[in-house]
């Protein structure tokens, strides 16, 4: 395999094409415009379709129509644009459609800024739109991982017939790193898309709603509460399966000597790795558990590491004012003090300030460390 | 059926043998039937996918023997764009009311028309929100009483009704746009012809096509079915003139 130096946004775009997603609908927004520009150039070469929509509202709904055909289609956007797509994401979740969304997060709320942020964690992992649904969320921390997870996203979307999001930040989108694309990409077998609206030719017109036979209706409307609850239960069952089978994380320098367990994802996790390496030189042992899937969340795995005897506290570091930390708190319960460090609005914490905070925790100078009686 | 009799009037194959939920005197059923007849006549039922709106027309998927998508409110043209771009071999149509198309979905319909998407829109204009119980629509007539314009539509506050066919025909991109009505047998025949033409343009991969159909809503207008037909002709039709507004051949045929 050849290593190519690429910008994150372009690497993600190429990864999608390699996964067979040649239908792309989008609206310009910084800091992810290179995805659309790349697709506008590349898609005609591979027989695909690029549509620049009138709005992100339309993008989400164009995707609804496109993936209903059974073909792989996707979009990329950044935080305010993803907010506008929540309507369609909710409808596609309700209609059980596989769609992939790339969110290159920028600082918010509102128009916010264009610099890297992780402030869309709540929106991505807790539903985002209305109704009882979840989006499968993958969070890359390197460009190679952005490539791999983008390709995986299409597979998981198809496997679960569920919206799937690659949640990266502006840093991943804008920086350059060498990446490799698999030469012969082979996926695990997937169930047939016999639910797709491809025209009812060849199906028995007299059998209605028998799966794969009659005219197929893709919808989320169910006025009968019994029917609607049943659809929600089907979704809930799917999310249970994801929690069982799809939890992904990386354990970095986790060992019995760790005094603090750091939980961090994406770009922020890479900065934490630098800090952990430096502290290792000073013989201070810190471990990092980096969630790769944010939903399903590696809660059990975090708890298992958090309750190791040497662990004094669990520190979550985010480029937000504290979003994932709520899931970490829920995972760890009251077994260990929960610490949080975060910067927001487009500011990326430096290794120095993260290190300073860790030293404060170890010196019991933080509120959580002081109040801990464990 | 014995050999001496043969059916001269049957339900179109594209239409299911079910009772619709529409109110007595509502012309949605007539418009559905015209679309179904056209699908039958072109023999395209098996490769047609409809896109349902939000509003009274939402249950259209229960009445057609074709595949269907159910869109969020106003977004049917976006769904149709996505589907048709990915599967240009399919025949795709949206069926939308005036709240759906002319209010919440104005951006989607204007841009789909402007991109020249090769699908067909059946736009049912009955000057009111039906499903939600008779609220004022962008197409509600000046002075018309609705539940949210209890003293009649005040054009000082709400502006004048939007003429969708005229609005869309200002776009430079070639399209077929015609307004018809379904309140008399003669008009129904004309409406059928327009819907046929709209699908013909799509089959020929020629252009975006939209047929605006003036329709009735006796329940929310507070009129009998017969009074409704008269109200359509006397109140709506002068403001919403019938005819062809745009053809892909540029020459407008009046």
Task: Give the helix/strand layout.
The complex is a heterodimer of chains A (374) and B (254).
Chain A: E1 3-7, H1 8-18, E2 23-26, H2 33-42, E3 49-52, H3 56-67, E4 73-77, H4 79-84, H5 86-94, E5 99-105, H6 121-125, E6 136-138, H7 143-160, E7 163-169, H8 170-174, E8 176-180, E9 217-218, H9 225-245, E10 249-252, E11 260-263, H10 266-281, E12 286-291, E13 293-295, H11 299-306, E14 313-318, H12 324-332, E15 338-342, H13 351-362, H14 367-371
Parallel strand pairs in A: 2-3, 2-4, 4-5, 5-7, 6-7, 11-12, 11-14, 14-15
Antiparallel strand pairs in A: 1-8, 6-13, 10-12
Helix pairs in contact in A: 1-2, 1-7, 3-5, 10-13, 11-12
Chain B: H1 28-42, E1 48-52, E2 67-70, H2 76-86, E3 91-97, H3 98-104, H4 106-115, E4 120-125, H5 155-158, H6 164-168, E5 175-181, H7 185-203, E6 208-214, H8 218-221, H9 225-239, E7 243-246
Parallel strand pairs in B: 1-2, 1-3, 3-4, 4-6, 5-6
Antiparallel strand pairs in B: 5-7
Q: At the fourth CATH level, what is the homologous superfamily of the largest domain in chain A?
A: Thiamin diphosphate (ThDP)-binding fold, Pyr/PP domains
Could you give the count of β-strands of chain B? 7
Main sheet record of chain B: 7 strands, mixed
Instruction: Write down the domain tally of chain A.
Output: 2
CATH fold description of the largest domain in chain A: Rossmann fold
How far apart the termini of chain B lie comes to 45 Å
Strand arrangement in the largest pleated sheet of chain B: 2-1-3-4-6-5-7
| CATH fold call of chain B | Rossmann fold
**Cα Rg of chain A:** 22 Å
Count of helical regions of chain B: 9
> Whole-number radius of gyration of chain B?
18 Å
Reading off the top of the CATH hierarchy, the class of chain B is best stated as: Alpha Beta
Total of DSSP H or I helical runs spanning 4+ residues of chain A? 14
Greatest interface: A-B, 41 and 38 residues
Overall average residue pLDDT of chain A = 95
- Beta-strand segment tally of chain A: 15
Strand content of chain B: 15-25%
Tell me, briefly, the overall form of chain B. globular
SSE series of chain A: EHEHEHEHHEHEHEHEEHEEHEEHEHEHH
Largest sheet of chain A: 7 strands, mixed
